[in-house]
Specification:
- The chain has a domain of about 100 residues.
- About 50% of the residues lie in helices and about 15% in strands.
- The chain contains seven helices and six strands.
- The strands form three sheets. Strands 1-2 form a two-stranded antiparallel ribbon. A two-stranded antiparallel ribbon has the order 3-4.
- A hairpin with a 5-residue loop joins strand 3 and strand 4.
- Helix 2 packs across helix 6 and helix 2 packs antiparallel against helix 7.
- It starts with 8 loop residues before the first helix and ends with a helix.
Length: about 150
């Protein structure tokens, strides 16, 4: 027995049309909420020597390329490069955050492994980040569908 009519189809159509009009602020707000988890983790895992490393970690949003999409980078603040760039006696320049993240060679030829504090902030908190993004986006979408 075939049915000619699907119940609730009109309501579903209206809800999908409303959902298509969800503002860019939903993507921005949910992406920022997830990225803030990674930011806090990176700051707490950063090796402490002078404290400048922790204060130099920022969130930077990419420019809007596609509607409904927002990406944030957890990165070192370029405004603090004067603090982070170290110059040795022989004139070689090194970037302190990179040496702490990836490791470095010592003067006597030894190797000091990196802390990978930026990478760990993402990989170790992936589930929390995803759930936070979904939670914030879900609330904002529900609010948009109600109105």
């Amino acid at each position: 027995m075939a049915r000619d009519k699907i119940e609730g189809l009109k309501e579903l159509e209206r809800a999908m049309n409303k959902l298509g009009k969800v503002p860019q602020s939903v993507a921005t707000k949910s992406a920022r909420a997830g990225a803030s988890i990674a930011l806090k983790a990176a700051r707490s895992e950063a090796p402490v020597d002078t404290g400048a490393l922790k204060g130099g970690i920022i969130l930077k949003g990419e420019r809007k390329v596609k509607p409904g999409k927002k990406v944030y980078d957890v990165m070192m603040d370029p405004k603090k490069n004067d603090v982070f760039v170290k110059t040795s006696k022989d004139g070689k320049r090194s970037y302190y955050p990179a040496s702490q993240e990836y490791g470095f060679m010592t003067a006597d030829g030894g190797y000091v492994p990196g802390y990978h504090f930026l990478r760990k902030s993402i990989t170790e908190n992936a589930r929390a980040i995803e759930s936070k993004i979904v939670e914030v986006a879900g609330k904002a979408i529900d609010k948009a569908l109600e109105g």
